[in-house]
Design goal:
- With 549 residues, this protein is an alpha/beta fold.
- The chain folds into four domains: 7-148, 3-Layer(aba) Sandwich (Rossmann fold), CATH 3.40.50.2300; 170-319, GAF domain (Beta-Lactamase); 323-392, Signal transduction histidine kinase, dimerisation/phosphotransfer (DHp) domain (Helix Hairpins, Orthogonal Bundle), CATH 1.10.287; 400-545, Heat Shock Protein 90.
- It contains 15 helices and 17 strands.
- The chain has helices at residues 19-28, 41-51, 69-73, 81-86, 103-107, 127-170, 176-187, 232-239, 255-264, 296-355, 360-392, 404-421, 432-435, 442-459, 513-523, and strands at residues 7-12, 33-38, 61-67, 96-100, 118-121, 194-200, 206-212, 243-245, 268-276, 279-288, 400-403, 425-429, 437-440, 465-473, 476-483, 528-532, 538-545.
- The strands form four sheets. Strands 2-1-3-4-5 form a five-stranded parallel sheet. Strands 7-6-10-9-8 form a five-stranded antiparallel sheet, with helices on both faces.
- A hairpin with a 5-residue loop joins β16 (528-532) and β17.
- The longest helix has 60 residues, at 296-355.
- The protein is elongated, with a radius of gyration of 38 Å.
Length: 549
Protein backbone atom coordinates (compact mmCIF):
# COMPACT_ATOMS: atom_id res chain seq x y z
CA UNK A 1 0.00 0.00 0.00
CA UNK A 2 1.13 3.57 -0.62
CA UNK A 3 2.71 5.41 2.27
CA UNK A 4 0.16 8.23 2.13
CA UNK A 5 -2.88 5.89 2.22
CA UNK A 6 -5.12 6.13 5.27
CA UNK A 7 -6.25 2.85 6.86
CA UNK A 8 -9.63 2.14 8.49
CA UNK A 9 -8.94 0.08 11.65
CA UNK A 10 -11.38 -1.74 13.93
CA UNK A 11 -9.93 -2.96 17.25
CA UNK A 12 -11.88 -5.73 18.94
CA UNK A 13 -10.52 -5.08 22.43
CA UNK A 14 -10.37 -8.24 24.54
CA UNK A 15 -7.81 -7.13 27.11
CA UNK A 16 -4.60 -8.12 25.35
CA UNK A 17 -3.42 -4.58 24.63
CA UNK A 18 -4.37 -1.07 25.64
CA UNK A 19 -6.37 0.81 22.99
CA UNK A 20 -4.61 4.06 23.82
CA UNK A 21 -1.21 2.44 23.37
CA UNK A 22 -2.30 1.05 19.95
CA UNK A 23 -3.39 4.53 18.92
CA UNK A 24 -0.02 6.00 19.96
CA UNK A 25 1.96 3.19 18.28
CA UNK A 26 0.13 3.74 15.00
CA UNK A 27 0.94 7.45 15.06
CA UNK A 28 4.59 6.79 15.85
CA UNK A 29 4.71 4.15 13.09
CA UNK A 30 3.68 6.83 10.58
CA UNK A 31 0.53 5.00 9.53
CA UNK A 32 -2.39 7.25 8.59
CA UNK A 33 -5.47 5.72 10.16
CA UNK A 34 -8.84 5.99 11.82
CA UNK A 35 -9.30 3.69 14.79
CA UNK A 36 -12.60 2.42 16.21
CA UNK A 37 -12.78 0.25 19.34
CA UNK A 38 -15.42 -2.40 20.21
CA UNK A 39 -15.47 -5.17 22.81
CA UNK A 40 -17.07 -8.18 21.05
CA UNK A 41 -18.31 -9.59 17.76
CA UNK A 42 -21.84 -8.18 18.15
CA UNK A 43 -20.51 -4.64 18.49
CA UNK A 44 -18.11 -5.31 15.61
CA UNK A 45 -20.98 -6.43 13.36
CA UNK A 46 -23.01 -3.33 14.20
CA UNK A 47 -20.08 -1.00 13.56
CA UNK A 48 -19.13 -2.69 10.27
CA UNK A 49 -22.71 -2.49 9.02
CA UNK A 50 -22.78 1.25 9.69
CA UNK A 51 -19.46 1.75 7.87
CA UNK A 52 -20.27 -0.42 4.83
CA UNK A 53 -18.33 -0.74 2.71
CA UNK A 54 -15.68 -0.91 5.43
CA UNK A 55 -12.78 -1.74 3.13
CA UNK A 56 -12.42 -1.42 -0.62
CA UNK A 57 -9.75 -0.65 -3.22
CA UNK A 58 -9.88 3.08 -2.51
CA UNK A 59 -9.95 2.76 1.29
CA UNK A 60 -8.07 -0.19 2.79
CA UNK A 61 -9.25 -1.53 6.12
CA UNK A 62 -8.22 -4.07 8.74
CA UNK A 63 -9.46 -5.67 11.95
CA UNK A 64 -7.15 -5.82 14.99
CA UNK A 65 -8.14 -8.53 17.44
CA UNK A 66 -6.72 -8.30 20.96
CA UNK A 67 -6.66 -11.69 22.70
CA UNK A 68 -5.87 -12.46 26.33
CA UNK A 69 -4.70 -15.87 27.55
CA UNK A 70 -7.38 -16.25 30.21
CA UNK A 71 -10.08 -15.97 27.57
CA UNK A 72 -8.54 -18.72 25.47
CA UNK A 73 -8.50 -20.99 28.49
CA UNK A 74 -12.23 -20.50 28.93
CA UNK A 75 -12.78 -22.95 26.08
CA UNK A 76 -16.13 -23.35 24.37
CA UNK A 77 -17.89 -21.02 26.79
CA UNK A 78 -16.02 -18.05 25.32
CA UNK A 79 -17.29 -17.16 21.79
CA UNK A 80 -14.69 -16.80 19.05
CA UNK A 81 -15.26 -13.33 17.52
CA UNK A 82 -13.14 -14.09 14.46
CA UNK A 83 -15.14 -17.27 13.71
CA UNK A 84 -18.38 -15.27 13.96
CA UNK A 85 -17.06 -12.61 11.61
CA UNK A 86 -15.59 -15.13 9.16
CA UNK A 87 -18.98 -16.85 8.86
CA UNK A 88 -20.32 -13.71 7.19
CA UNK A 89 -19.28 -13.86 3.50
CA UNK A 90 -19.55 -10.10 3.08
CA UNK A 91 -16.90 -9.58 5.78
CA UNK A 92 -14.58 -12.44 4.78
CA UNK A 93 -12.32 -10.27 2.54
CA UNK A 94 -11.39 -7.97 5.46
CA UNK A 95 -7.85 -8.82 6.69
CA UNK A 96 -7.29 -9.57 10.37
CA UNK A 97 -4.20 -9.16 12.59
CA UNK A 98 -4.21 -11.01 15.91
CA UNK A 99 -2.49 -9.44 18.93
CA UNK A 100 -2.06 -11.98 21.77
CA UNK A 101 -1.15 -11.16 25.35
CA UNK A 102 1.35 -14.06 25.63
CA UNK A 103 2.80 -17.08 23.86
CA UNK A 104 0.37 -19.28 25.80
CA UNK A 105 -2.55 -17.19 24.58
CA UNK A 106 -1.21 -17.39 21.01
CA UNK A 107 -0.99 -21.19 21.24
CA UNK A 108 -4.49 -21.46 22.67
CA UNK A 109 -6.24 -19.54 19.94
CA UNK A 110 -8.93 -21.36 17.98
CA UNK A 111 -8.54 -22.72 14.45
CA UNK A 112 -10.56 -19.79 13.07
CA UNK A 113 -8.17 -17.30 14.67
CA UNK A 114 -5.23 -19.03 13.03
CA UNK A 115 -6.62 -17.69 9.73
CA UNK A 116 -5.46 -14.22 10.77
CA UNK A 117 -2.95 -12.92 8.24
CA UNK A 118 -0.45 -12.01 10.96
CA UNK A 119 -0.11 -12.73 14.68
CA UNK A 120 1.82 -10.54 17.14
CA UNK A 121 2.72 -10.80 20.81
CA UNK A 122 1.72 -7.68 22.72
CA UNK A 123 5.00 -7.31 24.63
CA UNK A 124 7.05 -7.52 21.41
CA UNK A 125 5.10 -4.88 19.47
CA UNK A 126 6.92 -1.75 18.41
CA UNK A 127 5.28 1.07 16.44
CA UNK A 128 7.28 0.12 13.34
CA UNK A 129 6.39 -3.59 13.70
CA UNK A 130 2.69 -2.84 14.12
CA UNK A 131 2.63 -0.52 11.10
CA UNK A 132 4.59 -3.06 9.01
CA UNK A 133 2.29 -5.91 10.06
CA UNK A 134 -0.81 -3.94 9.14
CA UNK A 135 0.63 -2.97 5.76
CA UNK A 136 1.66 -6.59 5.13
CA UNK A 137 -1.79 -7.98 6.00
CA UNK A 138 -3.54 -5.47 3.76
CA UNK A 139 -1.21 -6.11 0.81
CA UNK A 140 -1.44 -9.90 1.25
CA UNK A 141 -5.21 -9.77 1.27
CA UNK A 142 -5.13 -7.55 -1.81
CA UNK A 143 -2.96 -10.09 -3.63
CA UNK A 144 -5.27 -12.94 -2.54
CA UNK A 145 -8.34 -11.07 -3.71
CA UNK A 146 -6.70 -10.20 -7.03
CA UNK A 147 -5.80 -13.88 -7.49
CA UNK A 148 -9.37 -14.92 -6.68
CA UNK A 149 -10.67 -12.37 -9.18
CA UNK A 150 -8.25 -13.68 -11.79
CA UNK A 151 -9.39 -17.25 -11.16
CA UNK A 152 -13.00 -16.13 -11.33
CA UNK A 153 -12.29 -14.29 -14.57
CA UNK A 154 -10.53 -17.35 -16.02
CA UNK A 155 -13.47 -19.57 -15.10
CA UNK A 156 -15.91 -17.10 -16.63
CA UNK A 157 -13.82 -16.95 -19.82
CA UNK A 158 -13.64 -20.75 -20.01
CA UNK A 159 -17.40 -20.95 -19.50
CA UNK A 160 -17.96 -18.35 -22.20
CA UNK A 161 -15.68 -20.25 -24.61
CA UNK A 162 -17.46 -23.51 -23.88
CA UNK A 163 -20.92 -21.97 -24.33
CA UNK A 164 -19.70 -20.35 -27.57
CA UNK A 165 -18.48 -23.75 -28.80
CA UNK A 166 -21.88 -25.27 -28.00
CA UNK A 167 -23.71 -22.44 -29.76
CA UNK A 168 -21.43 -22.79 -32.79
CA UNK A 169 -22.61 -26.40 -33.13
CA UNK A 170 -26.25 -25.48 -32.54
CA UNK A 171 -26.18 -22.82 -35.26
CA UNK A 172 -23.96 -24.74 -37.69
CA UNK A 173 -26.94 -26.29 -39.49
CA UNK A 174 -30.61 -25.48 -39.97
CA UNK A 175 -31.38 -29.18 -39.77
CA UNK A 176 -32.45 -29.80 -36.18
CA UNK A 177 -31.08 -33.35 -35.82
CA UNK A 178 -27.72 -32.40 -37.32
CA UNK A 179 -27.37 -29.36 -35.04
CA UNK A 180 -28.37 -31.23 -31.88
CA UNK A 181 -26.08 -34.17 -32.66
CA UNK A 182 -23.11 -31.77 -32.92
CA UNK A 183 -24.18 -30.07 -29.68
CA UNK A 184 -24.37 -33.38 -27.80
CA UNK A 185 -20.84 -34.30 -28.92
CA UNK A 186 -19.48 -31.03 -27.47
CA UNK A 187 -21.21 -31.61 -24.12
CA UNK A 188 -19.46 -34.97 -23.58
CA UNK A 189 -17.30 -35.51 -21.58
CA UNK A 190 -17.07 -31.91 -20.32
CA UNK A 191 -20.41 -32.02 -18.50
CA UNK A 192 -21.15 -35.73 -18.26
CA UNK A 193 -20.23 -39.21 -19.43
CA UNK A 194 -23.22 -39.13 -21.78
CA UNK A 195 -25.68 -36.46 -22.92
CA UNK A 196 -29.22 -36.87 -24.26
CA UNK A 197 -31.21 -34.02 -25.82
CA UNK A 198 -35.00 -34.53 -25.74
CA UNK A 199 -37.66 -32.33 -27.34
CA UNK A 200 -41.35 -32.14 -26.49
CA UNK A 201 -43.68 -33.13 -29.34
CA UNK A 202 -47.15 -31.78 -30.07
CA UNK A 203 -48.76 -34.86 -28.52
CA UNK A 204 -46.82 -34.38 -25.26
CA UNK A 205 -44.32 -37.18 -25.83
CA UNK A 206 -40.69 -36.40 -25.04
CA UNK A 207 -38.55 -37.75 -27.87
CA UNK A 208 -34.72 -38.11 -27.93
CA UNK A 209 -33.36 -36.08 -30.84
CA UNK A 210 -29.63 -36.48 -30.20
CA UNK A 211 -27.25 -38.25 -27.86
CA UNK A 212 -23.53 -38.69 -27.29
CA UNK A 213 -21.60 -41.07 -25.08
CA UNK A 214 -24.26 -43.78 -25.47
CA UNK A 215 -24.67 -45.63 -28.76
CA UNK A 216 -27.83 -47.62 -27.98
CA UNK A 217 -31.37 -46.69 -29.01
CA UNK A 218 -33.40 -44.92 -26.32
CA UNK A 219 -37.19 -45.09 -25.98
CA UNK A 220 -39.35 -41.96 -26.02
CA UNK A 221 -40.87 -40.78 -22.75
CA UNK A 222 -44.65 -40.90 -22.62
CA UNK A 223 -46.40 -37.67 -21.59
CA UNK A 224 -47.53 -37.06 -18.02
CA UNK A 225 -50.99 -38.49 -17.42
CA UNK A 226 -50.54 -41.36 -19.88
CA UNK A 227 -49.76 -43.89 -17.17
CA UNK A 228 -45.98 -43.48 -17.49
CA UNK A 229 -43.76 -43.90 -14.43
CA UNK A 230 -42.67 -40.60 -12.90
CA UNK A 231 -39.65 -39.46 -14.86
CA UNK A 232 -36.94 -36.89 -13.97
CA UNK A 233 -37.03 -35.48 -17.49
CA UNK A 234 -40.79 -34.87 -17.25
CA UNK A 235 -40.26 -33.37 -13.79
CA UNK A 236 -37.61 -30.93 -15.07
CA UNK A 237 -39.86 -29.90 -17.97
CA UNK A 238 -42.93 -29.47 -15.75
CA UNK A 239 -41.05 -27.51 -13.05
CA UNK A 240 -38.83 -25.62 -15.52
CA UNK A 241 -35.96 -26.22 -13.12
CA UNK A 242 -33.04 -28.65 -12.96
CA UNK A 243 -33.44 -32.10 -11.41
CA UNK A 244 -30.52 -33.94 -9.79
CA UNK A 245 -30.65 -37.68 -9.06
CA UNK A 246 -27.59 -38.72 -7.08
CA UNK A 247 -28.48 -42.40 -7.51
CA UNK A 248 -30.54 -44.26 -10.11
CA UNK A 249 -32.54 -47.25 -8.85
CA UNK A 250 -33.31 -50.09 -11.26
CA UNK A 251 -36.44 -50.99 -9.29
CA UNK A 252 -38.09 -47.57 -9.74
CA UNK A 253 -36.58 -46.52 -13.08
CA UNK A 254 -38.81 -46.10 -16.14
CA UNK A 255 -38.05 -47.73 -19.50
CA UNK A 256 -35.65 -44.95 -20.58
CA UNK A 257 -33.50 -44.98 -17.49
CA UNK A 258 -33.59 -48.76 -17.13
CA UNK A 259 -31.83 -48.87 -20.52
CA UNK A 260 -29.21 -46.39 -19.27
CA UNK A 261 -28.68 -48.37 -16.08
CA UNK A 262 -28.32 -51.71 -17.83
CA UNK A 263 -26.43 -50.67 -20.99
CA UNK A 264 -24.46 -47.58 -19.99
CA UNK A 265 -23.83 -48.28 -16.30
CA UNK A 266 -25.49 -45.00 -15.33
CA UNK A 267 -25.18 -44.11 -11.65
CA UNK A 268 -26.40 -40.51 -11.47
CA UNK A 269 -28.38 -38.08 -13.62
CA UNK A 270 -28.65 -34.31 -13.98
CA UNK A 271 -31.44 -32.86 -16.13
CA UNK A 272 -31.71 -29.22 -17.25
CA UNK A 273 -34.87 -28.01 -19.00
CA UNK A 274 -34.76 -26.14 -22.30
CA UNK A 275 -36.98 -23.09 -21.80
CA UNK A 276 -37.66 -20.64 -24.64
CA UNK A 277 -40.23 -17.85 -24.69
CA UNK A 278 -41.64 -19.03 -21.38
CA UNK A 279 -42.27 -22.58 -22.64
CA UNK A 280 -40.34 -25.75 -21.78
CA UNK A 281 -39.50 -27.21 -25.21
CA UNK A 282 -37.30 -30.07 -24.04
CA UNK A 283 -34.44 -31.05 -21.75
CA UNK A 284 -30.79 -32.06 -21.69
CA UNK A 285 -29.91 -35.10 -19.55
CA UNK A 286 -26.35 -35.60 -18.35
CA UNK A 287 -25.58 -39.19 -17.40
CA UNK A 288 -22.77 -40.09 -15.00
CA UNK A 289 -21.31 -43.57 -14.90
CA UNK A 290 -19.47 -42.66 -11.73
CA UNK A 291 -20.02 -40.22 -8.89
CA UNK A 292 -19.79 -36.61 -10.15
CA UNK A 293 -16.74 -34.59 -9.02
CA UNK A 294 -16.87 -32.59 -5.78
CA UNK A 295 -17.10 -29.32 -7.73
CA UNK A 296 -20.28 -30.48 -9.44
CA UNK A 297 -22.16 -27.31 -8.44
CA UNK A 298 -19.99 -25.34 -10.86
CA UNK A 299 -20.70 -27.91 -13.60
CA UNK A 300 -24.42 -27.75 -12.89
CA UNK A 301 -24.39 -23.98 -13.25
CA UNK A 302 -22.55 -24.32 -16.56
CA UNK A 303 -25.05 -26.94 -17.74
CA UNK A 304 -27.91 -24.57 -16.90
CA UNK A 305 -26.16 -21.73 -18.75
CA UNK A 306 -25.74 -23.97 -21.81
CA UNK A 307 -29.43 -24.93 -21.72
CA UNK A 308 -30.50 -21.30 -21.36
CA UNK A 309 -28.35 -20.18 -24.30
CA UNK A 310 -29.22 -23.10 -26.58
CA UNK A 311 -32.98 -23.19 -25.94
CA UNK A 312 -33.80 -20.09 -27.97
CA UNK A 313 -31.66 -21.23 -30.91
CA UNK A 314 -33.32 -24.66 -30.84
CA UNK A 315 -36.77 -23.09 -30.68
CA UNK A 316 -35.88 -20.83 -33.60
CA UNK A 317 -34.86 -23.89 -35.63
CA UNK A 318 -38.17 -25.57 -34.82
CA UNK A 319 -40.04 -22.42 -35.82
CA UNK A 320 -38.03 -22.34 -39.05
CA UNK A 321 -38.99 -25.95 -39.77
CA UNK A 322 -42.62 -25.13 -39.02
CA UNK A 323 -42.45 -22.12 -41.35
CA UNK A 324 -40.96 -24.31 -44.07
CA UNK A 325 -43.72 -26.87 -43.56
CA UNK A 326 -46.31 -24.09 -43.68
CA UNK A 327 -44.88 -22.83 -46.97
CA UNK A 328 -44.92 -26.36 -48.37
CA UNK A 329 -48.44 -26.77 -47.01
CA UNK A 330 -49.55 -23.58 -48.73
CA UNK A 331 -48.07 -24.74 -52.03
CA UNK A 332 -49.66 -28.17 -51.59
CA UNK A 333 -52.95 -26.51 -50.71
CA UNK A 334 -52.96 -24.52 -53.92
CA UNK A 335 -52.08 -27.62 -55.93
CA UNK A 336 -54.56 -29.91 -54.16
CA UNK A 337 -57.46 -27.46 -54.08
CA UNK A 338 -57.00 -26.57 -57.73
CA UNK A 339 -56.90 -30.29 -58.56
CA UNK A 340 -59.83 -31.33 -56.36
CA UNK A 341 -62.04 -28.41 -57.37
CA UNK A 342 -61.34 -28.91 -61.07
CA UNK A 343 -63.50 -32.06 -61.31
CA UNK A 344 -66.71 -30.57 -59.84
CA UNK A 345 -66.12 -27.34 -61.80
CA UNK A 346 -65.79 -29.37 -65.00
CA UNK A 347 -69.01 -31.17 -64.11
CA UNK A 348 -70.73 -27.82 -63.56
CA UNK A 349 -69.38 -26.47 -66.85
CA UNK A 350 -70.68 -29.48 -68.75
CA UNK A 351 -74.01 -29.22 -66.95
CA UNK A 352 -74.40 -25.55 -67.88
CA UNK A 353 -73.68 -26.42 -71.52
CA UNK A 354 -76.29 -29.19 -71.31
CA UNK A 355 -78.89 -26.83 -69.86
CA UNK A 356 -78.54 -24.72 -72.99
CA UNK A 357 -79.72 -27.68 -75.06
CA UNK A 358 -83.44 -27.93 -75.94
CA UNK A 359 -83.65 -31.58 -74.84
CA UNK A 360 -85.75 -31.50 -71.61
CA UNK A 361 -84.95 -35.11 -70.68
CA UNK A 362 -81.21 -34.47 -70.95
CA UNK A 363 -81.53 -31.40 -68.75
CA UNK A 364 -83.40 -33.45 -66.13
CA UNK A 365 -80.53 -35.97 -66.04
CA UNK A 366 -78.03 -33.16 -65.59
CA UNK A 367 -79.52 -31.66 -62.42
CA UNK A 368 -78.47 -34.54 -60.05
CA UNK A 369 -74.91 -34.30 -61.35
CA UNK A 370 -74.92 -30.56 -60.69
CA UNK A 371 -76.17 -31.11 -57.13
CA UNK A 372 -73.46 -33.69 -56.42
CA UNK A 373 -70.79 -31.37 -57.80
CA UNK A 374 -72.07 -28.49 -55.67
CA UNK A 375 -72.17 -30.70 -52.58
CA UNK A 376 -68.59 -31.80 -53.28
CA UNK A 377 -67.40 -28.18 -53.55
CA UNK A 378 -69.30 -27.24 -50.40
CA UNK A 379 -67.66 -30.11 -48.51
CA UNK A 380 -64.18 -29.05 -49.65
CA UNK A 381 -64.80 -25.44 -48.62
CA UNK A 382 -66.19 -26.50 -45.21
CA UNK A 383 -63.08 -28.59 -44.56
CA UNK A 384 -60.82 -25.67 -45.41
CA UNK A 385 -62.78 -23.31 -43.17
CA UNK A 386 -62.71 -25.79 -40.28
CA UNK A 387 -58.94 -26.18 -40.56
CA UNK A 388 -58.57 -22.39 -40.62
CA UNK A 389 -60.65 -22.21 -37.40
CA UNK A 390 -58.43 -24.85 -35.79
CA UNK A 391 -55.30 -22.88 -36.71
CA UNK A 392 -56.82 -19.65 -35.39
CA UNK A 393 -58.01 -21.33 -32.18
CA UNK A 394 -61.61 -20.33 -32.88
CA UNK A 395 -63.10 -23.78 -33.50
CA UNK A 396 -66.22 -23.92 -31.33
CA UNK A 397 -67.49 -27.05 -29.59
CA UNK A 398 -70.74 -27.12 -27.62
CA UNK A 399 -70.09 -29.58 -24.80
CA UNK A 400 -72.89 -31.35 -22.99
CA UNK A 401 -73.04 -34.52 -20.86
CA UNK A 402 -74.11 -37.38 -23.15
CA UNK A 403 -73.94 -41.16 -23.04
CA UNK A 404 -71.12 -42.21 -25.36
CA UNK A 405 -72.33 -45.68 -26.36
CA UNK A 406 -75.36 -44.43 -28.42
CA UNK A 407 -73.07 -42.08 -30.36
CA UNK A 408 -70.75 -44.97 -31.20
CA UNK A 409 -73.73 -47.13 -32.17
CA UNK A 410 -75.04 -44.45 -34.53
CA UNK A 411 -71.67 -44.03 -36.24
CA UNK A 412 -71.44 -47.81 -36.60
CA UNK A 413 -74.84 -47.94 -38.31
CA UNK A 414 -73.94 -45.06 -40.66
CA UNK A 415 -70.79 -46.74 -41.95
CA UNK A 416 -71.89 -50.37 -41.96
CA UNK A 417 -73.53 -50.28 -45.45
CA UNK A 418 -70.45 -48.72 -47.11
CA UNK A 419 -68.15 -51.26 -45.42
CA UNK A 420 -70.40 -54.10 -46.56
CA UNK A 421 -70.33 -52.73 -50.12
CA UNK A 422 -66.50 -52.80 -50.03
CA UNK A 423 -66.41 -56.26 -48.40
CA UNK A 424 -64.93 -54.84 -45.18
CA UNK A 425 -66.26 -55.97 -41.80
CA UNK A 426 -67.13 -53.21 -39.29
CA UNK A 427 -67.03 -54.53 -35.72
CA UNK A 428 -67.81 -53.06 -32.29
CA UNK A 429 -65.64 -53.66 -29.23
CA UNK A 430 -67.11 -51.84 -26.23
CA UNK A 431 -69.54 -52.54 -23.40
CA UNK A 432 -72.39 -50.04 -23.68
CA UNK A 433 -73.18 -50.18 -19.97
CA UNK A 434 -69.65 -49.30 -18.74
CA UNK A 435 -68.70 -46.28 -20.86
CA UNK A 436 -70.99 -43.92 -18.99
CA UNK A 437 -71.50 -40.23 -19.73
CA UNK A 438 -68.86 -37.93 -21.25
CA UNK A 439 -68.59 -34.25 -22.06
CA UNK A 440 -68.85 -33.94 -25.82
CA UNK A 441 -70.18 -32.07 -28.83
CA UNK A 442 -72.17 -34.86 -30.46
CA UNK A 443 -71.86 -33.66 -34.08
CA UNK A 444 -68.15 -32.90 -33.78
CA UNK A 445 -67.31 -36.25 -32.16
CA UNK A 446 -69.27 -38.01 -34.90
CA UNK A 447 -67.19 -36.00 -37.39
CA UNK A 448 -63.99 -37.26 -35.72
CA UNK A 449 -65.17 -40.87 -35.83
CA UNK A 450 -66.33 -40.52 -39.44
CA UNK A 451 -62.95 -39.10 -40.46
CA UNK A 452 -61.09 -41.93 -38.71
CA UNK A 453 -63.36 -44.65 -40.08
CA UNK A 454 -63.25 -43.14 -43.58
CA UNK A 455 -59.47 -43.08 -43.41
CA UNK A 456 -59.40 -46.71 -42.23
CA UNK A 457 -61.67 -47.82 -45.09
CA UNK A 458 -59.39 -46.12 -47.65
CA UNK A 459 -56.45 -48.30 -46.70
CA UNK A 460 -58.16 -51.55 -45.74
CA UNK A 461 -58.35 -54.09 -48.59
CA UNK A 462 -61.44 -56.16 -49.38
CA UNK A 463 -61.83 -58.97 -46.89
CA UNK A 464 -60.21 -56.87 -44.13
CA UNK A 465 -61.82 -55.33 -41.10
CA UNK A 466 -62.34 -52.09 -39.16
CA UNK A 467 -63.24 -52.03 -35.48
CA UNK A 468 -64.73 -49.27 -33.30
CA UNK A 469 -63.64 -49.79 -29.69
CA UNK A 470 -63.76 -47.96 -26.36
CA UNK A 471 -62.72 -48.53 -22.75
CA UNK A 472 -62.24 -46.58 -19.54
CA UNK A 473 -58.83 -44.97 -18.90
CA UNK A 474 -58.87 -43.33 -15.46
CA UNK A 475 -60.95 -40.14 -15.69
CA UNK A 476 -61.11 -40.54 -19.48
CA UNK A 477 -62.76 -42.78 -22.05
CA UNK A 478 -60.37 -44.04 -24.70
CA UNK A 479 -62.07 -44.37 -28.11
CA UNK A 480 -60.23 -46.21 -30.87
CA UNK A 481 -60.61 -47.08 -34.55
CA UNK A 482 -58.48 -50.05 -35.67
CA UNK A 483 -57.99 -51.37 -39.20
CA UNK A 484 -56.23 -54.35 -40.76
CA UNK A 485 -54.63 -52.28 -43.50
CA UNK A 486 -50.95 -52.19 -44.43
CA UNK A 487 -49.93 -49.96 -41.50
CA UNK A 488 -47.32 -47.19 -41.61
CA UNK A 489 -43.58 -47.00 -41.07
CA UNK A 490 -42.45 -45.51 -37.76
CA UNK A 491 -40.85 -42.45 -39.42
CA UNK A 492 -44.21 -41.47 -40.96
CA UNK A 493 -46.25 -41.57 -37.75
CA UNK A 494 -45.29 -38.06 -36.51
CA UNK A 495 -46.80 -36.59 -39.70
CA UNK A 496 -50.11 -38.44 -40.02
CA UNK A 497 -52.02 -35.69 -38.19
CA UNK A 498 -50.47 -32.89 -40.27
CA UNK A 499 -52.61 -30.93 -42.68
CA UNK A 500 -52.62 -32.17 -46.29
CA UNK A 501 -50.45 -35.17 -45.39
CA UNK A 502 -51.45 -38.39 -47.12
CA UNK A 503 -49.70 -41.74 -46.94
CA UNK A 504 -50.12 -41.87 -50.69
CA UNK A 505 -51.55 -39.33 -53.11
CA UNK A 506 -55.23 -39.99 -53.69
CA UNK A 507 -57.97 -38.19 -55.60
CA UNK A 508 -60.68 -38.64 -52.96
CA UNK A 509 -59.82 -35.85 -50.52
CA UNK A 510 -57.60 -33.00 -49.45
CA UNK A 511 -55.91 -34.89 -46.65
CA UNK A 512 -57.57 -32.70 -44.01
CA UNK A 513 -59.66 -35.33 -42.21
CA UNK A 514 -57.06 -36.42 -39.64
CA UNK A 515 -55.91 -32.85 -39.01
CA UNK A 516 -59.54 -31.89 -38.38
CA UNK A 517 -60.00 -34.84 -36.02
CA UNK A 518 -56.90 -33.70 -34.12
CA UNK A 519 -58.23 -30.13 -33.77
CA UNK A 520 -61.68 -31.26 -32.60
CA UNK A 521 -60.28 -33.64 -29.96
CA UNK A 522 -57.99 -30.90 -28.63
CA UNK A 523 -60.97 -28.54 -28.43
CA UNK A 524 -62.65 -31.18 -26.21
CA UNK A 525 -59.62 -31.13 -23.89
CA UNK A 526 -58.49 -34.61 -24.95
CA UNK A 527 -55.60 -35.97 -26.97
CA UNK A 528 -55.31 -38.10 -30.10
CA UNK A 529 -52.66 -40.70 -30.90
CA UNK A 530 -51.74 -43.24 -33.56
CA UNK A 531 -50.15 -46.68 -33.17
CA UNK A 532 -49.12 -48.53 -36.30
CA UNK A 533 -46.84 -51.32 -37.41
CA UNK A 534 -45.89 -51.77 -41.04
CA UNK A 535 -47.83 -54.76 -42.35
CA UNK A 536 -49.97 -55.10 -39.20
CA UNK A 537 -52.60 -52.35 -39.39
CA UNK A 538 -53.18 -49.02 -37.65
CA UNK A 539 -55.05 -47.83 -34.55
CA UNK A 540 -56.10 -44.23 -34.03
CA UNK A 541 -57.29 -43.47 -30.50
CA UNK A 542 -58.44 -40.38 -28.67
CA UNK A 543 -59.64 -39.49 -25.18
CA UNK A 544 -62.80 -37.78 -23.90
CA UNK A 545 -63.28 -36.76 -20.28
CA UNK A 546 -65.91 -38.64 -18.30
CA UNK A 547 -68.51 -36.72 -16.34
CA UNK A 548 -67.40 -36.92 -12.71
CA UNK A 549 -64.02 -38.33 -13.78
Amino acid sequence: MNGDESVELLLIHRGAVDAGWIEQALREGGLGHRLAVVSDAAEAFAWLRRQAPFADAARPGLILLGWKGSEAAAGADEPDPLAELAADESLAPIPVVLVAASSEAMAGTSAAMHHALDRLLAHEITPALLARSIRYAIERRRVELLDLERQKSDRAMNRARFVAAVMAEVTRSLDLKTALSGMARVLVPHLGDAAIIDLVQDDGRVVPFAQAGHAGELPAIEPAGSGAVHDPVLAAIAQRSSVWLAELDIDTADARHRVLLEQAGAQALFVTPLVARGQAIGAISYVFGRSPPAASVESQKLAEEVASSAALAIDNMRLFEQAQRAIRGRDELLAIVSHDLRNPINVMALAVATLEQPDVALRAQTLPRMKRALKRMEHLIDDLLDVARVDAGTLQVELSPLALAPVLDEVHEQWRPLCAEKDISLAKDYASTTLGVVQLDRDRVMQVLSNLIGNAIKFTPAGGGVCIGAELLGPWVKVRVTDTGPGSAAEKLPHVLDRFWQKERRTDGLGLGLAMAHGIVLAHGGSIHVDSTLGAGTTFWFTLRRVGG
